[in-house]
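Example record used in the benchmark description.
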Amino acid sequence: MHRRPSGLLSDPDFRRLLTATALGQLGDRVVFLALPLVAITALDASAFQVGLLTALTTAGSLLVGLPAGAWLDRTRKRPVLIAADLARALVLLTVPVAWWAGRLTFRWLCAVALTHGVLTVFFDVAHVSYLPHLVGRSHLVEGNARLSAVRSVTAIGGPAVAGPLVGGVGAPATLLASVLGMALSGLLATGIRGREERPDPGERPWLGRDIGAGLRFVLGHPALRAVVLGDAMFNLFLVLYQAMLLVYLERVIGLSPFGIGLILSGMGCGALLGALLAARVARRVGQRTVIWLAPLLTCPPTALMPLARPGWSVGVAAAGLAALSLGGVIRVVAQSSLQQTLTPDRLLGRMNATARFVSWGGIPLGGLLGGASGSALGPTATLWIGATGMTLSALPFSRVAEPGHQP
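Model output (structure tokens):
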């Protein structure tokens, strides 16, 4: 690893990665709003179908999460980033094409969501595993914080762009913005000059043995185990909540796509503030303490949304969602840096894939439960359940800070 300048922004390769991340994340944020709205507004999907679509979007973690990490530990990460971005762009392009041809169906939308989700698994695991190779372990907190800041800016800009686009040209055509962002992200990543070393081939055991090694490492390490179990609980109830959030805002509150986009942009403002504060908070409070304290303080305000009614209370509830995003980013920056610090290079891909497999394992279930709960109990009750579960997720996280769990 060659020496890095004092600040990562002076490194041209990191700037390219940062810009590529911004473009790809902008595309992802547009997908986050536009794909469910295609189902809701263009295909008149039921609450359960919206939940099912959410589940399929994230089912890739369960289907390919573990083998993806084991395979990525055997290869360079940058080519995977490029290929996954370009492939995701092509998959999403089929939605507006099918819509204009009059052939778009809910089944087609589900197939796109599942395929896009599988490709996203490879992209995300490669991205997180690539960062230590690119910036060095001494710059991980700075690198994660800057990347989180970019994600937060796009979390503001994505919905702010997508809301008016959905209202103006329709949800299917809005996905063209995602196609463009991901294609440009992949092309820009080709310009990163620094090349990571090819992993030592050594002995190539059966892929299942590599997967088992990753599982044993993560679940056998007290701090890593506490992080992924807390993440799994948080993500299950977050997705259960999110599965009905758009339905609640569109059908109960009566907001337009533009209004929904503003609320999601407000969440992005909270995430941006969290990214700007993450490194400072981690230094002052302690990296491990932040991981459990952030959800304990910032998840309860999500209960303001099911209390909201048309009018000023929606703005108050939106502030609660912004608080959730702020705490979430602060936690993720501290958590990602801790995970990367505790893991040797040879296990980074497997650690990230295993953590994602366990942490995200409840996400498809959360989407299905959110859809089922929305159909049986209504979106308001589902939001209450999600807010309660997210708050309780601070309990597993709290074990990260116990002295006996120090590495």
